[in-house]
């Protein structure tokens, strides 16, 4: 039905991908964050981002013919539909109105005969019965005249699907992580519905991180990694473990030779049932012990909650549970308390939280030390003044130590490259002389050379000062190259803490949400 | 090189300065006495300087230009009224007026800041209307407050007058301090300019103190500030209070130079020229410094002073002076607001 070969100019994010979906087939598309799944879908839908950035190479064949899909409208005309991860529904409208949005069935009336079709009367009876049909296909017993606002999340997902299948010409339906926000029972009824659709001859392209559900429903599976096609197999010819391995597996180059065991060292930081209410990164009860002097990695797929942990410790999002620092409880939801107890934080949101963009490098480096610890401050009776000379001296030293490429300590940070901005953030954290440094996504959006320097800096710090380093990263390979132990987070909880030399399959399964059962399945 | 230099000065300032230069040359061509223009520019700079300076803590703490300046102005007016009622005059009256106006300004500023913390993101619009409604409220206040001095109250009926002469009280005190005469009956208001510069210097010291760094950080990046252990709302509150207090002191300086106290509707639109001045000076709605204040107040007031006689010379029929004044000053304010930048 479809054969695509794509290559995407500039930075190659997709290289020679072939993807074929047959009529009535459920085809699963798998890959880590950033593997190129969304880019591939954007190309399929002719999204403007693709054309604005120079188009793509390769061909799309649909129903046996070569097609140019240059706008989402083209895709719709061909009968390609998508069920979005974020719901695109209007809460104040009924299910019918949402299903029929912009495709309303109308009857002419007096006014519209004079003033044009826009003023036609809506034919609610016809629309309701169409919507009913679509809902019946999905086996959903909900009334079509219910308002969308207040529906459980699972039902909203069904309304989205109903809207797509209500289109008469629908031939290919793409599901983008449809079960990510659903409970288990909701997810299983969704999977049932997907099967029903496939039986009706609609081709399904199913994107998901949950390996088990893919094993459950998919006919064929395509795995992407770093913009390349790893494999396309029939479900029968493979196993869960094999898929997991293919999804995360890549050559790991250890930057630290030995994997140290720090079990004998005292626990410096421990979390008990930690819950952090960070939108998009909910932490739902994490228990972790981190030992003094180790490099601890926190990994997992995007949106599963790994980012929330460090933000919760720093008191930036509402946090519950218990955090013990050297055995003493930490006051939660209080950034100052966290700073005073020896934490320093390098945020994943570098430009948003990590930097003062229109302020000099030197002030970026020292601001937190000034505001939280009264460093670089001279006192004149009741008056305080910042110590310009001390700041300059410290900034110069940091610029040299971390090799920050800049015009000088007074340059604003906005114009620095991503890597150098990250170094400024690290310099700011180090200025606090922390006991534990929390680093989130240290290498996101920076080039390869800078990545290595940033990671080297963290390793060096850990070695020379014995500082405990907690790295949160979406790049598993990076964690496996520097960490002593790695915790994998899935759906807000820890699925396992493993050494960096654990097998690819084990990591893959933990990331997909299989708790430590992983080993037994080998 | 030239491009980066222009960028660092900013196009709006270059345009305004160019316009001012053109006007000045035209003024010379028309034979308008320059010494008079220079003198009144300097007087107006001194008069408005502290009101413009009041914008600095507001912008730095993150609430943006303080359109609610009339709140502070009302407190300053109250201070002066009290000194007249106490039959004080001279420097003691001037400074007493300032000192008396500080506590109410601080308290009202705190309440105003508390309110602004609840409407983050739309401070400018709401502050404008807080300013307006406080003026309306004080219209009742001016009538009901128990002032009794015959200088300030209507001879018949009750309530305070529309304008109250400060002659023999605090009028021109700062203007005349160390004043340097030049040209034909013109002078440099040394005392007032020194007072303005002193206020600027104190603000400069504050911005370099720990409290100043806290406030600056809270203003430019609230999230960064929170992660650095700063209570952002508290900084905004302090900034609003400081701005309101400066508004009170500013109006005392303004009034002694104007030699009249203007009550009722007069404070209504006083925030706009100050906001416009600091924006023209190069401040954004998130960043402001002392240099923006000084450059801004000079450009704005000079433009106003020079534009009037030039316009009057060019359009001689009828009495267009008042209309031209309104068009020019509102024109500059409008231009400044369109140039307001959000940070960068």
Detail the topology: elements first, then pairings:
The complex is a heterodimer of chains A (522) and B (344).
Chain A: E1 6-7, E2 15-17, E3 26-30, H1 37-44, H2 48-52, E4 60-62, E5 65-67, H3 72-78, E6 80-83, H4 95-99, E7 106-107, H5 110-115, E8 121-122, H6 124-137, H7 153-166, E9 172-176, H8 184-199, E10 203-207, H9 211-217, E11 220-225, E12 228-234, H10 240-248, E13 267-276, E14 283-291, E15 295-299, H11 306-313, E16 319-325, E17 328-329, H12 335-340, E18 343-346, H13 350-354, H14 361-373, E19 377-380, E20 383-386, H15 388-401, H16 418-431, E21 436-440, H17 448-465, E22 468-472, H18 476-482, E23 485-490, E24 493-498, H19 504-511, H20 518-521
Parallel strand pairs in A: 3-10, 3-11, 6-9, 9-10, 15-22, 15-23, 18-21, 21-22
Antiparallel strand pairs in A: 1-2, 4-5, 7-8, 11-12, 13-14, 13-16, 16-17, 19-20, 23-24
Helix pairs in contact in A: 6-7, 7-8, 10-19, 14-15, 14-16
Chain B: H1 2-9, H2 11-29, H3 34-53, H4 55-61, H5 70-85, H6 90-117, H7 123-144, E1 163-165, H8 173-176, E2 180-182, E3 186-188, H9 190-207, H10 210-220, H11 222-227, H12 232-258, E4 260-262, H13 271-280, H14 290-314, H15 321-338
Helix pairs in contact in B: 2-14, 3-9, 3-12, 3-13, 3-14, 4-10, 4-12, 5-6, 5-12, 6-12, 10-12, 13-14, 13-15, 14-15
Summed up, what is this model?
Chain A has 522 residues and is α/β, with parallel strands linked by helices. Chain A has 3 domains: 6-238, Rossmann fold (3-Layer(aba) Sandwich), CATH 3.40.50.300; 253-342 and 434-522, P-loop containing nucleotide triphosphate hydrolases (Rossmann fold); 359-432, no CATH class. Chain B has 344 residues and is mainly α.
Element order of chain B: H for helix, E for strand? HHHHHHHEHEEHHHHEHHH
> Total strand count of chain B, please?
4
**Uncertain runs of chain B:** none
Percentage of residues in strands of chain A: 15-25%
Please tell me the overall pLDDT of chain A: 81
Find the structural class of chain B using helix and strand composition. Answer: mainly alpha
The backbone outline of chain B, from C-alpha atoms, is: globular
Report the sheet with the most strands of chain B, covering strand number, pairing sense and barrel closure. Answer: 2 strands, antiparallel
**What is the subunit arrangement here?**
heterodimer
Approximately how much beta-strand content do the residues of chain B carry?
under 5%
CATH topology of the largest domain in chain A: Rossmann fold
Can you say what the CATH homologous superfamily of the largest domain in chain A is?
P-loop containing nucleotide triphosphate hydrolases
């Amino acid at each position: 039905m479809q054969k695509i070969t794509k290559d995407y100019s500039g930075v190659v994010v997709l290289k020679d991908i072939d993807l074929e979906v047959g009529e009535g087939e459920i085809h699963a598309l798998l890959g880590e964050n950033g593997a190129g799944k969304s880019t591939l879908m954007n190309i399929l839908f002719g999204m403007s981002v693709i054309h604005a950035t120079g188009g793509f190479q390769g061909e799309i064949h649909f129903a046996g013919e070569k097609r140019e899909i240059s706008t989402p409208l083209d895709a719709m005309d061909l009968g390609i539909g998508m069920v979005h991860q974020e719901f695109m529904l209007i809460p104040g409208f009924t299910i019918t109105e949402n299903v029929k949005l912009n495709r309303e069935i109308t009857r002419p009336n007096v006014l519209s005969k004079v003033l044009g079709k826009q003023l036609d009367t809506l034919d609610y009876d016809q629309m309701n019965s169409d919507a009913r049909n679509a809902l019946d296909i999905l086996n959903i017993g909900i009334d079509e005249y219910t308002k969308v606002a207040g529906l459980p999340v699972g039902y909203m997902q069904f309304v989205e699907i109903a809207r797509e299948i209500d289109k008469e010409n629908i031939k290919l339906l793409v599901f983008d992580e449809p079960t990510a926000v659903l409970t288990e029972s909701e997810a299983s009824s969704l999977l049932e519905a997907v099967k029903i659709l496939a039986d009706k001859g609609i081709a399904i392209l199913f994107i998901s991180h949950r390996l088990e559900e893919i094993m459950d429903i998919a006919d064929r599976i395509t795995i992407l990694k770093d913009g390349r096609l790893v494999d396309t197999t029939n479900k029968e010819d493979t196993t869960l473990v094999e898929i997991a391995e293919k999804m995360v597996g890549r050559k790991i180059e250890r930057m630290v030779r030995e994997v140290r065991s720090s079990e004998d060292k005292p626990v410096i930081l421990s979390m008990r049932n930690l819950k952090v209410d960070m939108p998009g990164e909910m932490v739902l009860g994490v228990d972790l012990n981190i030992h003094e002097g180790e490099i601890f990695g926190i990994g997992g797929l995007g949106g599963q909650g790994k980012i929330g942990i460090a933000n919760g410790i720093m008191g930036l999002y509402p946090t519950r549970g218990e955090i013990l620092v050297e055995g003493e409880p930490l006051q939660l939801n209080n950034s100052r308390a966290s700073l005073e107890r020896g934490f320093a934080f390098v945020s994943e949101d570098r430009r948003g939280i990590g930097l003062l963009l229109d302020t000099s490098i030197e002030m970026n480096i020292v601001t937190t030390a000034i505001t939280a610890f009264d460093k670089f401050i001279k006192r004149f009776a009741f008056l305080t003044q910042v110590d310009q000379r001390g700041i300059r001296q410290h900034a110069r030293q940091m610029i040299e130590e971390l090799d920050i490429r800049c015009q000088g300590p007074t340059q604003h940070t906005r114009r620095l490259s991503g890597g150098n901005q990250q170094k400024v953030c690290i310099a700011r954290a180090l200025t606090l002389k922390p006991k534990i440094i929390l680093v989130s996504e240290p290498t996101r959006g920076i080039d390869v050379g800078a990545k290595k320097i940033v990671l080297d800096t963290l390793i060096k710090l850990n070695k020379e000062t014995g500082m405990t380093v907690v790295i949160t990263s979406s790049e598993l390979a990076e964690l496996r190259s520097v960490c002593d132990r790695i915790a994998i987070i899935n759906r807000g909880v820890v699925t396992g803490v493993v050494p960096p030399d654990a097998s690819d399959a084990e990591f893959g399964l933990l990331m997909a949400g299989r708790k430590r059962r992983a080993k037994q399945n080998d | 090189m030239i491009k980066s230099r222009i960028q660092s000065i900013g196009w709006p300032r270059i345009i305004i300065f160019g316009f001012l230069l053109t006007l000045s040359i035209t003024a010379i061509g028309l034979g308008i006495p320059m010494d008079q223009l220079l003198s009144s520019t300097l007087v107006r700079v001194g008069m408005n300087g502290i009101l413009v300076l009041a914008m600095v803590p507001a912008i730095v703490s993150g609430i943006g230009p303080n359109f609610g300046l009339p709140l502070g102005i009302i407190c300053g007016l109250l201070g002066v009224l009290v000194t007249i009622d106490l039959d004080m005059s001279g420097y003691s009256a001037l400074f007493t007026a300032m000192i008396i106006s500080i506590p109410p300004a601080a308290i009202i500023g705190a309440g105003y800041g508390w309110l602004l913390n609840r409407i983050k993101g739309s401070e400018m619009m709401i502050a404008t209307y807080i300013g307006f409604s406080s003026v309306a409220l004080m219209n009742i206040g001016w009538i009901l407050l128990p002032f009794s001095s015959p200088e300030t109250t209507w001879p018949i009926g009750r309530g305070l007058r529309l304008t109250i002469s400060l002659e023999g009280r605090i009028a021109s005190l700062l203007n005349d301090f160390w004043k340097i005469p030049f040209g034909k009956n013109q002078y440099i208001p040394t005392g007032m300019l020194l007072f303005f510069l002193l206020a600027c210097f104190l603000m400069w010291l504050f911005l370099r103190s720990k409290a100043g760094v806290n406030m600056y950080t809270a203003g430019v990046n609230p999230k960064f500030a929170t992660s650095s252990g700063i209570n952002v709302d508290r900084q905004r509150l302090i900034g609003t209070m400081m701005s309101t207090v400066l508004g009170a002191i500013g109006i005392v300086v303004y009034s002694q130079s104007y030699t009249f106290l203007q009550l009722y509707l007069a404070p209504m639109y006083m925030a706009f020229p100050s906001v416009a001045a600091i924006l023209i000076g190069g401040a954004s709605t998130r960043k402001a410094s002392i240099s923006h204040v000084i450059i801004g107040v000079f450009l704005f007031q000079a433009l106003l002073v020079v534009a009037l006689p030039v316009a009057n010379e060019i359009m001689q029929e009828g009495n267009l002076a008042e209309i031209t004044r309104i068009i020019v000053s509102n024109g500059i304010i409008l231009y400044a607001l369109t140039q307001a930048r959000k940070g960068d």
